[in-house]
Amino acid sequence: MLDTSTHVTDCSSDLAAKLRDAIISGRFMPNERLIEADLANAYKVNRANVRIALAMLDQEGLVVRERNRGARVRLVTDEEALEIAEARRVIEAMVARQAAERANDRQKAALRALMARMRAAYEKQDFNSYSQRNVEMHRAIQDIAANATANRLLQTLKSQVVRLQYRAILQSGRPAKSLAEHGEIVDAICANDAPAAESAMRRHLCAVKNALRQAMQAAKQGAY
Fold this sequence. Notes:
The protein is globular. It is mostly helical. Helices cover about 75% and strands about 5% of the residues. The chain has a 3-stranded antiparallel β-sheet. The chain has 2 domains: about 5-75, Arc Repressor Mutant, subunit A, CATH 1.10.10.10; about 80-220, GntR ligand-binding domain-like (Four Helix Bundle (Hemerythrin (Met), subunit A)), CATH 1.20.120.
């Protein structure tokens, strides 16, 4: 007999992942209403699946559900974004330390190869590719650390501010600095130098926070 509760949960989880990607990529914009009937029709699911998926994204801070008003994409304020960047800095510094403590030869080689791809994207001035390699690098470090709780928290934090972070990456001079910062992190992890890896990640994410703040100021002045 088919376990319908399991089927509904799996379907809702799949839908939540699709909606998460749509929000992160900008297909759904901040404060845009998410109408259950429209989503059910667009994704070929029933409204029960939509409600569960929206509840999942509400818990992640991507969606706001309001009584008698439905759901909308949550708008992250500048102040919240900077708070998220600070929380991420603390968690990822710990993750970098753990990665340095645990990295084996195969994982070190994979980090070196990814670093080479980041450098190639930078040299081609392909910042879309560079941004993607950036994401892959941080994810690879998290995989090495194998801290499931930290990884879950970071996924939620990053998904809330990913569009803002792309602005920071595009700032004049930032890609070159970012590349050097990632190189320091990779060197420390590959040397199994936990204190150096933690320090390098902390410096990198402090710079990211500063770049994010500058990008916000530029956006207010109409530079973006």
